[in-house]
Write a structure and sequence with these properties.
Layout lengths: L1 H27 L4 E7 L1 H7 L19 E8 L25 H7 L11 H10 L8 H15 L1 H7 L9 E3 H12 L4 E11 L3 E13 L20 E3 L32
Antiparallel strand pairs: 1-2, 1-5, 3-6, 4-5
Helix pairs in contact: 6-7
Length: about 270
């Protein structure tokens, strides 16, 4: 009996520790910061193996604009991503029927072989979206609205920064232009480096804009920590030239997106 009485406090203490650890893990599993990643296809397709790993989606050329890549979930205190919150995650395409044309146009997959984008949407939803408090429809709809609100291409154009095959721009002028819309502490500019002569001669291609977003995916917010850039002082803002359309800029109006009739019966 004495041994049992001595073990009881230890068991209670261990139980308290387990409760504290569980509470801490549960708190950390709720993201309070989102990162919106907007991809510039001109930089992506020109920097990745000279476009060999860049393919036009089976649904046609997407919009000639910055495209959604992902909306990621993070813990702002630790700075760590919060992912894969539901091992039984399911992605349903039917609820996205009213968004499907915008998804084809502004959230495609440019990976090879050419595809309709659904695998990417499933991956993003089950990796990040399922960790938010948002429904699938709200998650995708608000992400598309954030892309539109950011208005990156028009903002850069208003400051004289337009895609060009030979002109380069300073990273400073790109950042100052974006700050007029996004705020100075809510984004970072990311590049892909392509070497002409390694490691001395290279060109940095503007590839991605990363933006801090509120946990409900409605507004841009100041980033809790400074987001560094991997770009050099000068940046190439390359025109969109897909592998099968070399020599002309991609234009969504030349290949309007259409909804395959069989797609709406598919769930993943």
């Amino acid at each position: 009996m004495a041994g049992s009485n001595e073990a009881l406090p230890r068991l209670c203490f261990l139980g308290l520790l387990l409760c504290l650890c569980y509470s801490s893990a549960a708190a950390a599993s709720t993201p309070d910061l989102l990162y919106l990643n907007l991809l510039w296809p001109g930089g992506y397709c020109q920097s990745v193996n000279l476009g060999e790993n860049c393919c036009i989606p089976t649904t046609g050329e997407p919009a000639a604009d910055f495209l959604v890549q992902s909306l990621e979930t993070y813990d702002s205190t630790s700075g760590n991503p919060i992912t894969n919150c539901n091992s039984d995650c399911r992605f349903l395409i039917n609820p996205l029927a009213e968004l499907i044309e915008d998804l084809f146009a502004y959230w495609p997959s440019l990976s090879c072989p050419s595809n309709n984008g659904m695998e990417q949407w499933k991956h993003v939803w089950c990796t990040y979206g399922n960790c938010t408090s948002l429904s699938e429809v709200v998650y995708f709809n608000r992400t598309l609205l954030l892309r539109e609100q950011a208005n990156i291409l028009a903002t850069l154009k208003s400051c004289g920064i337009v895609p060009h095959a030979s002109i380069t721009y300073s990273l400073k002028e790109i950042a100052e232009a974006l700050a007029t819309t996004l705020g100075s502490s809510s984004f970072s500019v990311e590049c892909e480096r392509r070497y002409t002569v390694w490691p001395l001669l290279y060109q940095d291609y503007l590839t991605r804009i990363r933006i801090c977003v509120s946990s409900d995916a409605t507004t841009f917010v100041s980033c809790p920590t400074y987001l560094t850039t991997n770009c050099g002082n000068t940046v190439k803002f390359a025109p969109i030239l897909y592998p099968s359309s070399r020599g002309r800029q991609g234009d969504a109006t030349t290949n309007p997106v259409r909804l395959p009739s069989a797609m709406m019966d598919v769930f993943l």
